[in-house]
Amino acid sequence: MRLVLILPLLALFLTACGGGGSRQASSSARPVDRAYPAFEDADPHPWTGRRPERYPVHGLDVSRWQQDIDWTSARAAGISFVFIKATEGVEEIDPKFETHWAGAGRAGLPRAAYHYFYFCAPAAAQARWFIANVPRILGGLPHVLDMEWNHRSPTCRKRPPGPEVRSEAKTFLDILEAHYGQRPILYTTVDFWEDTGIGRLPGTRFWLRSVSAQPAERYPGANWDFWQYTGTGLVPGVPGKVDINVFRGSVQSWQRYPG
Questions:
Q1: Any catalytic annotation for residue 43?
Q2: CA-CA distance, 50 to 74, in Å (whole number)?
Q3: CA–CA distance, 63 with 109 (Å, rounded to integer)
C-alpha cells in the first residue's frame, strides 16, 4: 500500500522538475488561462476569413532575438504554449535556449524546442546534435524541425531537390521520434512548401507560416496543426516584436494534443 502511494508522488516530482523518463508523454492538463486572446501587432494585417483571434489557443516561438521574457505575464495575457529555438546545423546552439526553456517551464507553459535545418550537413548528424542539447521531459509538446530556404546564410545557400529534402526530413523526424517518443512537427514557409513538395511527406504534422493570408490560401489542401500568423506581434511580458501562432483546434482538443 505504501509503494502505491509513493510511485504517483515520484511521477509528480519528475514532471515538476522537467526531467526523468525515457519518453515524452502527452499532457492531460495543458493550461489555457485565457482563451481567444487578441494581441496587438506592430504591423497588423487586415484579415479576411477566420481571423487569428477566432482561434482559442495562442502561443509564441522565440529565440536569441527575444531577451528577458516575463513568462508569467505572457501566460496571463493568453499565451498557452511556446516553441523555443535550440539548435542549428551540427554545431550551433541558441544562446538563449537554456534561459527560455527554464523560464517557460517555471511558468508552467507547454514547450518544445526547434531545430533550424542546415542543408550542407547530413540530417542524421543534425538530429544527434539536437538530441545532445535538448532534454527529454514529461508532458512536453512534440519538438520541431524548421525547414526553410536561407538565402542570407554566409556558409550554405544550397537548395536540394524535393526528393532529397523529403528524404532528409524523414531521417531527422525518425531519429527524434525514436529518442523522444513523439513524431516531431515540421515548420515551413510558402516558398519552401511550393519548391520541395514537403507537404507530401506522410505522417507529418505541420506548422505553417502565413502572415498575409489564411493558410488555406497559401497552402491549398494542407492539413496543419499550428499557424504562425505574425512576426510583429506585441505580447505583454515580451520585449519588442515576436512571432505569434495559433493552434488549429479547440481548447478541448488542445488538452489531448498530440493524441
A1: no
A2: 24
A3: 16
The more confident residue out of 28 and 182 is 182
The alpha helices in 18-161, defined as continuous H runs, are 71-77, 97-106, 123-133
Residue % of the chain over a pLDDT of 70: 89
C-alpha cell at 228: 504562425
Is the bond preceding residue 258 a cis peptide, omega within 30 degrees?
Answer: yes
- Residue 7: per-residue pLDDT: 36
Cell numbers given for 46: 487586415
The residue with cell 516561438 is 61
Place of cell 487578441: 38
Q: Choosing from 41, 61, 94, 225, which is the catalytic residue?
A: 61
* The pLDDT value given to residue 171: 98
Q: What angle do CA 202, 165, 149 make, to 5 degrees?
A: 120
* Cα–Cα distance, 210 to 188 (Å, whole number): 10
Annotated catalytic residue, options 53, 70, 92, 148? 148
CATH 3.20.20.80 holds for 57-256: yes
What SS3 class is residue 195?
helix
Q: Which pLDDT belongs to residue 18?
A: 40
Q: Cell numbers of 36, please?
A: 481567444
- pTM for the predicted model, two decimal places: 0.89
Average pLDDT, the chain: 90
Please indicate whether residue 148 is annotated as part of the active site. yes
Q: How far is CA 136 from CA 11, 17, 214, in A?
A: 14, 11, 34
